[in-house]
Each structure stands twice: as C-alpha cells, then as structure tokens.
Design a protein that fits this description.
The protein is of the alpha/beta class and 169 residues long. The protein is built from five helices and eight strands. α1 packs across α5.
Amino acid sequence: MRILVVVASKHHATAEIGDAIVDELRAARHEAKRVAPEEVRSLDGVDAVVLGSAVYMTQWMESMRSLVARLGDELHRLPVWAFSCGLAGVASSGRVQDPVRASSVIRQLDPVAYTTFAGRLDPSVLVLRERSVVRLSGAPEGDYRDWNEIRAWARGIVRELDAHLAQAG
C-alpha cells in the first residue's frame, strides 16, 4: 500500500517521529513517504494517510490545519491515522497528561486511531520569543519522546492495514 505520512514540525522533533513511523511502515513492505503539509497537492494514488503535527497553544500547526481544510473530502475517503506531539501537560514522568487538548481538527478527521506523543524541548533551537514563552509556561526542557511507544503505534497501523488488505483480497 502507498501511505503518505504528512507531518507539520517546527523544530524537527515531530518530523523525526514521522520518520520513525515511515521506517516501520517500510519494514512491513508498505510504500511510505514523509512530506510536509504544504507539499501535498492531492491524495491521488495514496491508499492511507498518517497525519502528525506539533501542538502549540493546544492547536495543530497552521500548515496542517490548512491541509485538512483543503483536502478534507479526500481524507474522509481514506483510512487516516493521526498523532500530535508536544509538551502541554507533560508530567515529571515525561508522560502527556491530557492527550485530547490538541485540536478540533482531529475530531473533524475521525481517524482510525489517534494518539499524542510527548515531544522535545531544546532551548538552543528556539528564537528569543519562543524562549520567553517557554520560561513563562514552565515547559520542561528535554526529550520526552518514547521511541518504543512510537514504533509500537506504527506497527499497529501496519496490523490494521494488513487486516484491511486481507479482507479486501
């Protein structure tokens, strides 16, 4: 199957999650590619979609919200999985406490599955304004991404796709 993994990422942490998902899909012999939302013009020839976005101020990034607005009808005709990545609600354990705060966009998509992954905060890549917001919000510095959890979620996509192929076959 041809699977498009569309990821909106500002500081590359979410893009790296998308790459891990692509790796798992390819390991299962699916054709997968990661692209940014602004690169997607059409979903012709695509069998399934994974959408992922960094979350800022409880919202998916504008580029992803725009893609969903532009291609919503096409997305509703395909199996879609979605994930968010961010630090809102990250507890001292590194776990995201409130995974449903991301965006109303997710509800519009009605994905096969949705999850939230904890993100990464590296102050060295932030501009002054972002560092100020981080300081005021008390967001925890560090990399909280759980690669085993991310890869397991991607393998779940593979299982669902394989079951779908078996039923259709």
